[in-house]
Amino acid sequence: MIAILVEYIKVRIHLVQLIGLTLLMSILVLSTKNTLVTWVHSMLFLIASFIVFRIFDDAFSVKTDRVEHPERTYLIPQKFKLFKIITTIIIGVYLLSIWLLFPTAFLIIFLLVVSSLILYLLFAKKVVVLKLIPLVKYPILLNCVSLISFNEIELGILLSSFLLMAGFDSFDAVKRNSNRIWQPLLLLFCCSLLLYKPWLNYIDILFSLLPLILIYIIRNESFVRYFSIVYFPITFFILTHL
Predict the structure, then answer these.
(1) Which SS3 state, helix, strand or coil, does residue 157 take?
(2) What is the pLDDT of residues 175-186, one digit of tens each?
(3) Separation of alpha carbons 137 and 116, rounded Å
(4) Is 197 left (phi over 0), alpha (psi -120 to 50) or beta?
(5) CB-based burial of residue 217 (10 Å sphere; 0-12 exposed, 13-18 middle, 19+ buried)?
(6) What global pTM score does this model have?
């Protein structure tokens, strides 16, 4: 069982990327007014949650992953049985830890786990829905961070995290067919509207349009998705807190 967990971690858990994602998501919610302890506390919650929900999501996307990612050997039927047991144990330990360390977020996290489980069971054969379910966690986890840090956060900021990650994931379609660049452009444009609110200051529309033009120009570059996920949270933080 330990060997399968180690095998999974090597394939699916990339700490540098997860730390980067944690920092980018954190700056959507936290501010320079928060203490270092609050930042560390909130980021530990986020990175632990991202890891656990990646394991959880992977356990329920096995049918599509076996086709799209044959290199993931933990999906071999004999190994996957043990992987499901590992997933169950990790979810149990995670929920207990949230209850002990982040009690204000426990009910929300518990409902997120249960609702995600129900959605996976109901839409097991709907590929489009299966790709959307993992994205639901982002606004919910950020809402938990706002509770942990005692920061008030607008609904639009929470929704922007969903659109940002949906835009990031939609670059997979662009990789197969560059003509589908409109998908991430549309999602990221909607994300930018929620972040920058250009109707309050018209000049802020430039922060939405200029990067989208650049993304279109470099759409065939492998790093384009990473540019998008870095640019929007950082510019939002600069515009609102610095």
Answers:
(1) helix
(2) 888 889 999 999
(3) 9
(4) left
(5) exposed
(6) 0.93
